[in-house]
Design brief:
InterPro entries: Phage_SPP1_head-tail_adaptor, SSP1_head-tail_sf. This is Head-tail adaptor protein. It holds the Pfam family Phage_HCP. With 113 residues, the chain is mainly beta. The chain has a single domain, classed as Thrombin, subunit H. Helix content is 8%, strand content 43%. The chain has an eight-stranded antiparallel sheet with strand order 1-4-5-8-7-6-2-3, with no helix packed on it. Strand 2 and strand 3 form a beta hairpin. The longest helix is centred in the middle third of the chain and has 9 residues. The radius of gyration is 15 Å and the shape is globular.
Length: 113
């Protein structure tokens, strides 16, 4: 297990957009469940929020995963009651340490507001 492995205290669903045949000769877009890896949620620091603002993105949550976990930009993370869009994925300068996913909150499709 990686050094970060013992800190991954939750499981979170990872969903990815995919194109499927719509039955009428066209394509439709849908979300497909990829996996439910172990992860850790962390609040972004003031510096991370400022960097995100400067890049034109809102940063709501940061999630950490074991190195090699299949999480990509534009994926959705779905903790209970929320849907998050992955806006960036980073690996630290030391390979094999962890994978970090910066996320922004997405309004769930079935929400009534």
């Amino acid at each position: 297990m990686s050094r970060v492995g013992r800190l991954l205290n939750r499981r979170i669903e990872v969903w990815r957009e995919a194109s499927v045949d719509d039955g009428g000769g066209g394509q439709a877009t849908t979300w497909v469940h990829q996996s439910t890896p172990r992860a850790r949620r962390s609040q972004p620091s003031a510096r991370e929020r400022t960097a995100a603002d400067q890049a034109g993105a809102e940063l709501n949550e940061t999630w950490y995963f074991a190195p090699g976990t299949d999480v990509q930009r534009r994926d959705q993370l779905r903790p209970p009651g929320r849907v998050l869009k992955v806006v960036a994925v980073f690996e630290p300068s030391e390979d094999g340490t962890y994978l970090r996913a910066d996320c922004t909150l997405v309004q769930p499709l079935n929400s009534t507001t």
